[in-house]
Write a structure and sequence with these properties.
Strands 2-1-4-3-5-6-7-10-13-11-12 form an 11-stranded mixed β-sheet, with helices on both faces. It is built from 11 helices and 22 strands. By secondary structure, the chain is α/β, with parallel strands linked by helices.
Length: 469
């Protein structure tokens, strides 16, 4: 496969349409480029060759460049679009993403869109350029349709930050309908809350999937856009604080001299999650439709019925148009990012004691794979495992809370009366029920429940001997 980087040939002046895109009368055009076009889409310099592959120019209007670059119109065509640039150079993530795409799609045409000269501006100026760059990408695709009968349904645009909105404009201006656009944490400032034709939207391709990883507000704005803008919008870890990007993690990174990585950790995480989905295709990370992060944290939203779950990243399945479909999942701090979600529902008999004790539950799931996995954190109902425990065999449950009486010495531990527990795997959708007339769980004492057998798809579970560390 030939790695392609398209270039736009130089013209002496802008067309009337493109002048209009720039705000009329060519004033902005003149201030940016002078009297002639510069390449909006160009090959990296020799110092920036991606993956050691020398890029070739694909020049609209010059059919011989198609042959020189080995362009295959019947194969997939994937365009990767960077965002706002502070350095004027391709960032490290671009190399990783190109390598992952080429490894996964060995026959695809891989095009890197270089608009560094326009993105390395003050942010508002770079935003104003996104529409024009999207228009030039559309012009390239229109020419490929005319020259090579390119099938737009085989075209996939992947845009990061501002590049996601560039992809949206390309989808607006192209003749026909793009197959897919993936937005990797699309930029928020100057795009949040605007009309759909001024940002990436579901109208821009047959399928638009979006990852949101940095939606936390600072001074009233967030780096990544908060609102759903695709057919599916996935918010890993709530779209907020990403594992591995905490203050402690960042201090370690900063101490190693990687201050820039500290600043962009959560924003760029969307790219690394997408790369992970390309590399670890046999371990897809599932995201689950939910109305909000708080409900997801309670484990309420682990259903895959009626297309309520989907793969995150490259392996996402095209869904029937369903606007503003928010999906959530938890991830690990590093690659492979995928983990395992379990929903736990407990029916406790002595409700008043529960309210008084304000219990915090700890869960340990033990499966058919060696070495059961213990959790160093838990939520009330959502349990996230960083390792696959295999077929669920045992559940170890303990809890802590306020003691029943502070007047007694030593204080008397509380007892919760649990009638039943249900554990559901989000990834397999398999359910395990623990039925009992009553199980007394003493404060701070681990209780282990074991799966004895399965009859007519109903697990029969009994209580094992109490396991104490």
């Amino acid at each position: 496969m030939c790695f392609l980087t398209p270039a736009v040939s130089a013209f002496q002046s802008a067309s009337e349409e493109e002048n209009a895109l720039l705000g009329g009368k060519g004033t902005l055009f003149g201030s940016v480029w002078g009297s002639s076009w510069r390449s909006l889409i160009s090959s990296p310099s020799s110092e920036q060759n991606l993956m050691g592959t020398k890029g070739c120019f694909l020049q609209p209007g010059q059919a011989e460049s198609l042959e020189e670059c080995g362009f295959n119109a019947s194969a997939k065509t994937i365009l990767i679009i960077h965002g706002w640039s502070m350095s004027g150079m391709f960032e490290k993530w671009m190399h990783k993403l190109v390598a992952a795409v080429r490894r996964r799609e060995t026959e695809a045409n891989v095009l890197v869109v270089d608009w560094l000269n326009l993105s390395q501006q003050l942010y508002p100026t770079a935003v104003n350029h996104t529409r024009l760059v999207g228009h030039r990408i559309a012009s390239l695709l229109n020419w490929l349709q005319d020259e090579e009968q390119l099938v737009l349904g085989n075209v996939h645009l992947i845009g990061y930050s501002l590049g996601a909105h560039v992809a949206g404009y390309a989808g607006t201006f192209v003749k026909g309908r793009l197959g897919r656009i993936t937005g990797l944490d699309p930029a928020g400032p100057m795009f949040e809350g605007v009309e759909s034709h001024r940002r990436l939207s579901p109208d821009d391709a047959a399928f638009v999937d979006v990852l949101h990883t940095y939606t936390r507000e600072a001074l009233g704005v967030s780096i990544g856009i908060q609102q759903p803008i695709g057919d599916i919008d996935i918010y890993p870890n709530g779209g907020d604080v990403q594992p591995g990007c905490s203050l402690g993690d960042m201090l370690t990174t900063a101490a190693a001299g990687n201050l820039v990585d500290v600043m962009k950790c959560e924003h760029e995480r969307a790219v690394h999650l997408f790369v992970d989905s390309l590399i670890n295709k046999d371990h897809s990370s599932f995201a689950y439709q939910c109305s909000g992060p708080d409900r997801f944290k309670k484990g309420i939203c682990l259903s895959c019925r009626k297309n309520r779950c989907n793969n995150m990243g490259y392996n996402a399945k095209t869904m029937r148009k369903r606007r503003n479909s928010k999906m959530y999942l938890k991830t690990r701090a590093d690659t492979p990012f995928g983990g395992y979600h379990y929903q736990m529902k407990m029916h406790v008999f002595n409700r008043k004691k529960v309210d008084d004790a304000n219990p915090s539950f700890s869960v340990r799931l033990i499966g058919s794979h060696p070495d059961g996995v213990g959790l160093n954190f838990t939520n009330t109902f959502l349990v996230f495992m960083e390792q696959d425990v295999g077929e669920l065999l045992k559940i170890e449950l303990s809890w802590e809370g306020h003691t029943e009486s502070l007047s007694s010495i030593p204080p008397k531990p509380q007892v919760l009366e649990v009638r039943r527990i249900r554990v559901k795997s989000g990834e397999t959708q398999k359910k395990h029920w623990i039925w009992r007339n009553q199980a007394s769980i003493i404060q701070k004492e681990p209780n282990v429940f074991c799966l004895l057998s399965v009859n007519m798809n109903v697990p029969v579970i009994f209580r094992c001997n109490v396991h104490k560390e």
